[in-house]
Amino acid sequence: MRIVCENLSYTYNEGSPFAAKALDGVTLTIEEGEFFGVIGHTGSGKSTFVQHLNGLLRLPTSLKKYKPKKRKKSENEAPMSVLRVGEFDLTSKNTDFRALRKRVGMVFQYPEYQLFAETVEKDVAFGLENFAEKGQKPTEEEVKRAVSDALATVGLDYNEVASKSPFDLSGGQKRRVAIAGVIVTKPEVLILDEPAAGLDPLGKQELMELLHKIHGDWCKTVVIVSHDMDEIAENCTRAAVFSEGKIAMCASPKELFSHAEELLSLGLDIPLTAKLVLALKERGIEIDCDYTVEDFVQKVLARKGGRA
Amino acid sequence: MHALEFRNVDFAYSEEGKRDFCIKKLNFTVEEGEFVAVLGHNGSGKSTLARLSNGILASDGGEIRVFDSVLTDKNLFDIRKQVGVVFQNPDNQTVASIVEDDVAFGAENIALPREEIGRRIDFALKAVGMEEFRRATVARLSGGQKQRVAIAGVLALKPRIMILDESTAMLDPKGRREIANVALRLNKEEKITVLFITHFMEEALLADRAVVMNRGEIVMEGTPREIFSRHEELLTYNLTLPRIGRICKSLSEGGMSVNDTLDIDTLADEIARDIKGDSAL
Q1: Which of A199, A203, A285 sits opposite B272 (nearest CB)?
Q2: Rounded distance, CA B16 to CA B199, Å?
């Protein structure tokens, strides 16, 4: 499903003294099949943006109480917002948001804090049972199969963990169970807000491998929000940089990090490889790489012995 | 003087009669004024170590000494004044809605005189660089700021040892730098002994000494540089090198003459020397 967003704006607590504009005219297209990164410092609007993608935050025009204004269009009125995810038009009241959410999965930050059921099986099955259409409740067999598939995908053994309490698992396992609870409906688009935060280095690596595995399979599009620029450089096809509710840049990691100075001026970090490229540039050596560790090493080694 | 000393400490989380050893015969000392980083994968016993240090958890055997007094039920509260722990989640560690009330909470609980509490709030907020936020609402602060308030709350008790248990894990890069800098400054200027538990290998580089834990035991010990030069061993404990270490390693494997360094400028110098030096021949 292609995600198209034009002129999207959002203000928290609109009309109150605490009103805060979180998104300000965001225009962005995410193609089907991308592994897309969303970056920006805290408060830049990235979480607000991704929460729009499965209708957790709604455009005012899609709400029941919305009534189109009859007054004449004024000159400086904001342009119409567009937000489409596949065939779903998120600006319309008539959209089936339930169907949308079934196909666009959202994994929040620290998803393990949302575990609640007595057993891993019940926790993972919760979404599946609730997304089922009326009168088409999945049978016990079907639930079991789906749960066991989802657990296998995240690298857990059904027989070992299904009857355990999710609270007895280790931190990394809890996170996997929480992710299994989202992917159990096999969403085509998977959005993850800082999926690797708080894990140990190996856990991070395993999690990214897991996402690539899902991405190659039934999940067509992955969107990750991350603070870790190295993670973006190593994994994403493209990334958008949010700053003060606007999109400051949107490009492939290679192009993005070639504007390292600009990113630094936005108060963002850059990957270590980009820092090294900058430091080498100061010493009169230009390295043209895609900012993954392997490519950087390869390009530097190619220059060994002055074969420039 | 030893600030903190573990002698043959055992600890097990018991569940339904099963005892699962988490810390086994642990011997560990921290000298006064040291800045020690504690590394280890999830479940290696780092947090248990932190919690044993000020009696949040009681050990099952062995002896824990804080500035040469043995931790017992009787002196628990005195020891807690000396050993402050800051946890991972900033939202779980605030008790009041206004910054100064929150910082005062611990100091009020040990029944300090009012004027003294005021002085300690001044001191603690200044130490973490949050003086301007004295009357701010905690809920409206950023993660890094909340975490600094949590540190201030511990500082108000004037501890001699401060343990940061993955206190940077939930923060963004800017928040992480704030906390690391505060910890360094407290160590250098206030002479507080710091135990810094972290998953970020880069943060461990700030420490005078680093220890690596695995299955409740200390398996490696040395300066961060020494520890990171033993890559193979680190990998066996499910830890990785900091990224820069991995780059150094790959470059030298590829035949480039770079030394193991953990500093970007040094590495850039060495790469430049290799590339230019060779071309000059």
Answers
A1: A285
A2: 31
Q: Does A79 touch chain B (CB under 8 A)?
A: no
> Measured between CB atoms, does A43 come within 8 Å of chain B?
yes
* CA–CA separation, B33 and B161 (whole Å): 9
Q: Does one domain contain both B165 and B252?
A: no
The tokens describing A194, both together, are 């800082």
Best A13, A243, A304 member to test B by mutation, with max B CBs in 10 Å, is A304
B38 and B73 part of one domain: yes
pLDDT at A71: 58
Q: What is the CATH number of domain A3-256?
A: 3.40.50.300
B14 has a pLDDT exceeding 60: yes
Q: Which of B88, B142, B254 sits opposite A301 (nearest CB)?
A: B254
- B118 shares a domain with B236: yes
Contact between residue A192 and residue A110 where contact means Cβ atoms under 8 Å apart: no
Query: For B268, which of A199, A276, A297 is closest by C-beta distance?
Result: A276
Q: What is the 3-state secondary structure (H, E, C) of A202-216?
A: HHHHHHHHHHHHHHH
Confidence of residue A308 (pLDDT cuts 50, 70, 90): very low
Report helix angle A272-282 to A293-302, nearest 10. Answer: 30
In this structure, are B169 and B256 located in the same domain? no
Is residue A132 pLDDT above 80, yes or no? Answer: yes
Do residue B90 and residue B177 come from a single domain?
A: yes
Which domain covers residue B50, as residue numbers? 2-241
Does A17 contact B at CB distance below 8 Å? no
Query: What integer best gives the mean pLDDT of chain B?
Result: 88
Interface ipTM = 0.74
Query: Is the CB of B239 less than 8 angstroms away from the CB of A200?
Result: yes
Distance CA A84, CA A273 (A): 36
Predicted TM-score (pTM) of this structure: 0.82
Q: Is A305 on the interface with B (CB under 8 A)?
A: yes
Q: State the CB neighbour count (10 A cutoff) for residue A281.
A: 13
Which CA distances in Å does A93 have to A12, A60, A66, A85, A96? 21, 9, 9, 15, 9
Within this chain, do residues B8 and B79 fall inside the same structural domain, yes or no? yes
- Rounded Cα–Cα distance for residues A237 and A110 (Å): 24
**Nearest residue to B36 (alpha-carbon basis) of B155, B158, B196:** B196
Is the pLDDT at A191 greater than 90? The verdict is yes
Q: What is the pLDDT of residue A33?
A: 93
Residue A303: closest C-alpha in chain B: B275
Q: Are residues B246 and B154 in the same domain?
A: no
Q: Helices B173-189 and B143-155 meet at what angle, rounded to 10?
A: 20
Nearest to B84 by CA among B223, B182, B217: B182
Q: What are the domain boundaries of chain A?
A: 3-256, 271-308
List the single residue in B with minimal CA-CA distance to A229: B173
**Residue from the list A202, A267, A301 with its beta carbon closest to the beta carbon of B238:** A202
Identify residue A204 by its one-letter amino acid code. Answer: K
Structure confidence by residue, pLDDT tens digits, B148-190:
999 999 999 999 999 999 998 888 888 888 899 999 999 999 8
Min Cα distance B111 → chain A (Å) is: 35
Do B79 and B115 lie in a common domain? yes
What's the pLDDT band for A106 if we cut at 50, 70, 90? very high
* Total residue count of chain B as it appears in this document: 281
